[in-house]
UniProtKB/TrEMBL annotation:
Protein name per Swiss-Prot or TrEMBL: Fructose-1,6-bisphosphatase class 1
Lineage: Bacteria, Pseudomonadati, Pseudomonadota, Betaproteobacteria, Nitrosomonadales
Entry's localization field: Cytoplasm
E.C. number: 3.1.3.11
Residues engaged in binding Mg(2+) 2: 112, 115, 279
Subunit structure: Homotetramer.
Fructose-1-6-bisphosphatase class 1 C-terminal domain segment(s): 197-329
Cofactor descriptive note: Binds 2 magnesium ions per subunit.
Organism this protein belongs to: Methylovorus glucosotrophus (strain SIP3-4)
Biological process terms in GO annotation: fructose 1,6-bisphosphate metabolic process; fructose 6-phosphate metabolic process; fructose metabolic process; gluconeogenesis; sucrose biosynthetic process
Binding site for substrate: 115-118, 207
Fructose-1-6-bisphosphatase class I N-terminal domain mapped to chain residues: 4-193
Keywords: Carbohydrate metabolism, Cytoplasm, Hydrolase, Magnesium, Metal-binding
EC class of the enzyme, as a word: hydrolase
InterPro entries hit by this protein: FBPase_C_dom, FBPase_class-1, FBPase_N, FBPtase, Fructose_bisphosphatase_AS
Length: 333
């Protein structure tokens, strides 16, 4: 089987884009390097000797794992190489990271360096999520406000999944393509071109332990799924919860489904559980590019105008008809 390397794929994409400067290609190359390096660290597992909690907390009050910090450092180091970024922002850093003096890039990179990190100690899939934005014209030293762009303005988004194989899934706005890391050659190969999410599905993903906190629309949707063939849906459903958003979105890209982390009575004070800028928005761009839908329940996720770097949000995404159904239930509330 002859597969295209990601370098070849990126060069081709650049050639097809009239007026492309090659900057995005170089930025993506650095992201690819970051993901390979994080994959190596994750794959070391207990051999790394630093699997535990650090005792420190990130800006959101979450206990940091050593690998959260290692992955964050890898992203910061690897993505300075091109000199084409104006700044970076991460789940693990309170404030935006500004580039060294003299570096004036035209793009901003936002990332969750290690998503699902509570799974790291138990050898379940984790991932990295990233989003690339344009730095507003004329801005030399970006400020916080420059990062607060709605998801529709993303130039590129994607994730790496460190699972039974390491995969990279990206969109630059013309569909979603998936690559698998060949550990022999160290290359990501195009194994999943033009991924599409099935319109219908019989599989939902939600943390059921939060049931008592959910809004009525979510209770109704899940209750109807659980009633299966004898309920109003007239068909049996399956449930999954990996507690790694990357793994859930990947499964949905491959075989459809719906993923829900709604705002509920437990997380309402923070606005939800998942972060808008470096979790929800990049995943929403991928899902829409794969013909699915991504919503807060009441609004298209990608149109939300952010007001804070670490803003949280309600997330409902996946198979188009299922997300539409949840939105209808919210409208009927
Ligand atoms: O612990 P819970 O409530 O199941 O939440 C799981 C969710 O939290 C996350 O792990 C949040 O990401 P981080 O690990 O980057 O904080 C998501 O990947 C996942 O969907
Ligand atoms: Mg995360
Ligand atoms: Mg994280």
């Amino acid at each position: 089987m002859s597969l295209m390397t990601i370098q070849h794929y990126l060069t081709r994409a650049q050639q097809q884009h009239a007026g492309a400067t090659g900057e995005l290609t170089l930025i993506l190359n650095d992201i690819v390097t970051s993901c390979k390096r994080v994959a190596q660290a994750v794959n070391q597992g207990a051999l790394l000797g630093t699997m535990g909690d650090l005792g420190s907390q990130n800006v959101q009050g979450e206990v940091q794992k050593a690998l959260d910090v290692i992955a964050n450092t890898i992203f910061l180091e690897s993505n300075q190489a091109s000199g084409l970024l104006a700044g970076m922002a991460s789940e693990e850093m309170d404030d935006p990271y500004l580039m060294p003096e003299g570096v004036h890039g035209r793009y901003l990179l936002l990332f969750d360096p290690l998503d699902g990190s509570s799974n790291v100690n138990v050898n379940i899939s984790v991932g990295s999520i990233f989003s690339v934005l344009r730095c507003p014209d004329g801005v030399v030293q970006p400020q916080l406000a420059d990062f607060l762009q709605p998801g529709v303005q993303q130039v590129c988004a994607g994730y790496a999944l460190y699972g039974s194989s390491t995969m990279l899934v990206i969109t630059t706005g013309s569909g979603v393509d998936g690559f698998t890391l060949d550990h022999g050659t160290g290359e990501f190969m195009l194994t999943h071109p033009q991924m599409r999410i099935a319109e219908d599905s019989r599989e939902f993903a939600i943390n059921m332990s939060n049931q008592r906190h959910w809004p009525p629309a979510i209770k109704r949707y899940v209750d109807e799924c659980v009633q299966g063939a004898s309920g109003p849906r007239g068909v049996d459903f399956n449930m999954r919860w990996v507690a790694s958003m990357v793994a859930e979105v990947h499964r949905i890209l491959l075989r459809g489904g719906i993923f829900m982390y709604p705002m509920d009575n437990k997380n309402a004070a923070q606005g939800g559980r998942l972060r808008l800028l470096y979790e929800a928005n990049p995943m929403a761009m991928l899902v829409e590019q794969a013909e699915g839908l991504a919503s807060t329940g009441r609004q298209r996720l990608l149109e939300l105008v952010p007001h804070a770097l670490h803003q949280r949000v309600s997330v409902i995404l996946g198979s188009r008809h299922e997300v539409e159904r949840v939105q209808d239930y919210f409208s009927a509330e």
